[in-house]
Amino acid sequence: MATFDEKIKEIEDEIQKTPKNKGTEGHLGLLKAKLARLKEQQEVSAAKSGAPGLGYGLKKAGDATVVLVGYPSVGKSTLLNQLTNAESKIGAYEFTTLNVIPGVMDYNNLKIQVWDVPGLIKGASKGKGRGKEVLSVVRSADLILIMCDVNHLKQADIIKQELYNSGIRLNKEPPEIYIKKKSSGGITINSTLKLDLSENLIKNVLREYGFSNCDVLIKENPDLERLIDAMLGTRVYMHMLVVLNKIDMSKETPKINEDFVAISAKNKENVEELKRRIFEKLNLIRIYTKPLGKEVNFNEPMIMKKGTTVSDFAEKIHKDIKKELRYSLVWGTSVKFPGQRVSLKHVLHDGDVIQLH
């Protein structure tokens, strides 16, 4: 019986040999769907068999978790020490960090956990340099900081590709493709806009992933990879920020087509700006409570995601509170005047004060 590697190589070879034109679109699409499914099955099989490099993890703590990702010796350990209270070993040689080093960054009454992981290199998604171990840690964070040397900007592109290969989708939302299985009737596709992919190709990809009877609602115009991602359901969608280090050693202004912060970890240059951007990227807000007859405690906010409503906030405290809630008063930028009475659907802003009745 052919191994996963043999099956994968066979399909990759066929994709390479097949000419790319309108007539082969459907065939190539199905081959790519099969290839993605095989790679996913290979990963699952390796994890179940206890293959080296998998199952490497770290307990999350604090209000959010940020992971520093980059090539060896780009200054991640130095930056971790500047951002947090960690004492990560620093050395001007590769693979200084052999384990995950955690630290805690205090910012705006938030406790943000920061992980310094071993350096990633090209081929990490295939296991090179303990890459699969590191990537399993990265998947569990809330924000990725891709750190690279300002004089070696291609490092960021290589890291992004390795993250993509491991199923991590950066600065993207999950596909708006919704599948509802049914017992019979085949595949029905409904879309809210014109699709570039043919209905026949979509149905073939669905069947490849075991969806022979289902209703599908597509609310975007996906390419083939977005469609496959929706079928797999194992992709992780994460925000990321590029950190360009060692600007003290560069005379030119960096040019990069990504959202970035240029710093010198060694000289602490722009580190405070980086902290601000981390807070911004995490999409967190701080909500303070005002108990009846008492003052607001501005030292202990409730940490919520942007877009949180009064209903969400009440439920986070306790489900029974939401059921018994009659009304709420809010002070802050989300209301027109201090102490405004609001509904359960009212969206709270960072720094708002709320009193539940």
Question: Which helices and strands occur, and which strands form pairs?
Answer:
Elements lengths: L3 H14 L7 H24 L15 E7 L5 H8 L17 E7 L2 E7 L14 H8 L4 E7 L4 H12 L2 E3 L6 E5 L5 E5 L7 H10 L5 E5 L5 H9 L3 E10 L14 E3 L8 H11 L2 E6 L12 E4 L4 H8 L1 H6 L3 E4 L8 E3 L10 E4 L1
Parallel strand pairs: 1-3, 1-4, 4-9, 5-9, 7-8, 9-10, 11-15
Antiparallel strand pairs: 2-3, 6-8, 11-12, 13-14, 13-15
Helix pairs in contact: 1-2, 2-6, 2-7
Describe the model.
The chain folds into three domains: 4-51 and 175-232, no CATH class; 64-172 and 235-281, Rossmann fold (3-Layer(aba) Sandwich); 285-356, Roll (Ubiquitin-like (UB roll)), CATH 3.10.20. 31% of the residues lie in helices and 22% in strands. It is of the alpha/beta class. A hairpin with an 8-residue loop joins strand 13 (328-331) and strand 14. The strands form three sheets. Strands 1, 2, 3, 4, 5, 9 and 10 form a seven-stranded mixed sheet that branches. It has a five-stranded mixed sheet with strand order 12-11-15-13-14. The protein has a three-stranded mixed sheet with strand order 6-8-7, covered by helices on one side. The chain is built from ten helices and 15 strands.
TL;DR of this structure?
Helices cover 31% and strands 22% of the residues.
CATH C-level of the largest domain: Alpha Beta
Radius of gyration: 24 Å
Query: N-to-C terminal Cα separation, in Å?
Result: 67 Å
Count of helical regions: 10
Overall spatial form: globular
Mean pLDDT: 87
Q: Provide the CATH topology of the largest domain.
A: Rossmann fold
CATH superfamily caption of the largest domain = P-loop containing nucleotide triphosphate hydrolases
Unreliable stretches (pLDDT < 50, length at least 5) are 50-56
Taken as a percent bin, the fraction of beta residues is 15-25%
At CATH level 2, the architecture of the largest domain is 3-Layer(aba) Sandwich
- The amount of helix comes to 25-40%
Largest sheet, strands/sense/barrel: 7 strands, mixed
Tell me the number of strands.
Answer: 15
Give the H and E element order.
HHEHEEHEHEEEHEHEEHEEHHEEE
- Structurally, how many domains make up the residues? 3
Going by helix content, strand content and strand pairing, the class is alpha/beta
